[in-house]
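So, does this match?
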Amino acid sequence: MGTFRVSVEIGDPAGERFEPVEALVDTGAGYTVVPRSILESLRCQPVLMGPPGGHVLLGVTTLEELGLGIDPLNRRLTPVDLYLA
């Protein structure tokens, strides 16, 4: 499906501080990667951190967990129904 960019906010674990970022949605990427500098400023624990000056990459695993799908024609994220099995 390709790639496109969206504006999102990344929050700290307590949900008190948020950082607006431009994220690259990549349907071929499994995981989300956020630059170390952004995560450290939000006091997040290190997991998948990108290089300090790198881009935010929004991967399929995060989209699925947030209940978001892809509208490739309009290049946007859309809510999808989640079913618990």
Remarks:
- The first strand starts at residue 3 and ends at 11.
